[in-house]
């Protein structure tokens, strides 16, 4: 077992103007199998927590829930302190309970799909986002010291609650998450860090969401007004203060970019809703990230589990009818188990971006070999739909080591050392 140290990661990457290769560990070892990807995903998770998002706390000592009317009251206790928050649930007029659901971070801006419940999560109550004075304001900080993973943590607690509260009439195996603009950033992070979410739908999330920091810097340098890392840290408190050192000097020093944040969702469902009419959102930056991230789903054998649609110009967070059929396809596949065509990769911007390419993605995506499971099972990554998960929170707290579970433990499918992990190669940054 080798320790993961921040200095190793930083000096291994040094200064990289291109988007980091999803299939190369910080040590330089290559991702060859689906089991290796689980370890690489764990490495990416810890890098993001260290350098941008803040630490995801360990599972709390207690999560209890009660349901009355249409309100799910969740009480979390940890370290002798407690908080309560109360998402409301809007039920569909059609369908049969238990319903599939979308957790709306700050509500949703997409049309409510037929037969799908909407869980309305007031993320500002959990962690405020008014301006820079909002740092540390919100219920999350009653229990924990810091983190802009607060909203993702709140989504995890909602998942805990609906799994143990049958009166809420929500099927915990059919839950999506969505949000638009700043809340789209939160939806993407929640989907990346909560493996029980089967479909993630960020909408027009821009900088700090589906954009890449590197490409956005290049766009601004070439004269187009686009939000970059150095600007966004002055606007609000979405990121850890650790991120400032990169945002104010050079994002090229980051050992990751947001194509890797999106890749943490793989091979589960991801449908990115975007548009090309607002330069500030960095639509080409997002497009480059989307094409790059899609290689991860392809390598895992699940290319149609990830799609994106960049529509023509319209008002921010409005939803054009041209994207309705595409959204329906992902909803029907991941929340209703239907066979639909989710091979969707469209932009109205006429952008050109390929992988590999010399400037931004000078790496060749592999076809990963399926590994055998710790209990003799084989990977289900290629299906594009995650296998059944336990009702317990399923992502471990950030640590400086990653080790194999002891015999008899049931680690989650996407954990390094869990189901579909056979030990892989010896990686200086992960599973050795």
TrEMBL record:
Sequence similarity: Belongs to the carbohydrate esterase 15 (CE15) family.
Organism: Mycena pura
A cellular-component GO term for this protein: extracellular region
InterPro entries hit by this protein: AB_hydrolase_fold, GCE-like_dom
Keywords, sorted A to Z: Hydrolase, Lignin degradation, Secreted, Serine esterase, Signal
GO terms for MF: carboxylic ester hydrolase activity
Signal peptide residue numbers: 1-20
Region (Disordered) location: 365-409
Residue spans of biased composition, Low complexity class: 400-409
Subcellular localization, as worded in the UniProt entry: Secreted
This protein's name: (4-O-methyl)-D-glucuronate--lignin esterase
């Amino acid at each position: 077992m080798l320790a993961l140290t921040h200095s190793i990661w930083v000096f291994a990457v040094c200064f990289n103007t291109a988007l980091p290769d999803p299939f190369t560990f910080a040590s330089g070892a290559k991702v060859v199998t689906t089991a290796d990807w689980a370890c690489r995903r764990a490495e990416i998770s810890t890098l993001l927590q260290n350098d941008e998002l803040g630490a995801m706390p360990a599972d709390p000592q207690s999560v209890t829930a009660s349901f009355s009317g249409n309100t799910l009251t969740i009480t979390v206790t940890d370290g002798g302190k407690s908080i309560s928050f109360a998402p409301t649930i809007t039920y569909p007029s059609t369908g049969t309970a238990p319903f599939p659901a979308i957790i709306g971070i700050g509500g949703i801006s997409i049309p409510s799909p037929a037969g799908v419940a909407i869980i309305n999560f007031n993320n500002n109550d959990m962690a405020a986002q008014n301006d820079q004075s909002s740092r540390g304001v919100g219920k999350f900080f009653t229990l924990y010291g810091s983190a802009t993973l607060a909203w993702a943590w709140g989504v995890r607690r909602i998942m805990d609650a609906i799994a143990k509260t049958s009166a809420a009439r929500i099927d915990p195996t059919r839950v999506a998450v969505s949000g638009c603009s700043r809340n789209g950033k939160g939806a993407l992070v929640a989907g990346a860090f909560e493996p029980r979410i089967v479909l993630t739908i960020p909408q027009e999330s821009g900088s700090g969401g589906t954009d890449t920091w590197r490409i956005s810097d290049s766009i601004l340098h070439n004269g187009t007004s686009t939000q970059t890392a150095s600007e966004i840290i002055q606007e609000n408190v979405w990121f850890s203060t650790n991120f400032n050192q990169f945002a104010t000097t050079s994002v090229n020093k980051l050992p990751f970019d947001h194509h890797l944040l999106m890749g943490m969702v793989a091979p589960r469902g991801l449908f990115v809703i975007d548009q090309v009419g607002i330069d500030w959102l960095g639509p080409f930056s997002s497009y480059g990230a989307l094409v790059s991230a899609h290689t991860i789903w392809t390598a895992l054998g699940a290319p149609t589990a990830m799609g994106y649609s960049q529509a023509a110009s319209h008002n921010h967070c409005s939803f054009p009818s041209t994207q309705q059929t595409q959204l329906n396809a992902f909803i029907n596949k991941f929340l209703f188990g239907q066979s639909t065509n989710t091979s969707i990769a469209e932009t109205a911007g006429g952008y050109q971006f390929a992988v590999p390419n010399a400037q931004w993605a000078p790496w060749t995506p592999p076809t990963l070999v399926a590994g055998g499971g710790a209990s003799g099972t084989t990977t289900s990554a290629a299906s594009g739909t995650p296998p059944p998960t336990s009702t317990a929170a399923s992502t471990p707290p950030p640590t400086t080591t990653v080790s194999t579970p002891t015999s008899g433990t049931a680690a989650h499918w996407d954990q390094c050392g869990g189901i579909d992990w056979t030990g892989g190669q010896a990686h200086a940054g992960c599973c050795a």
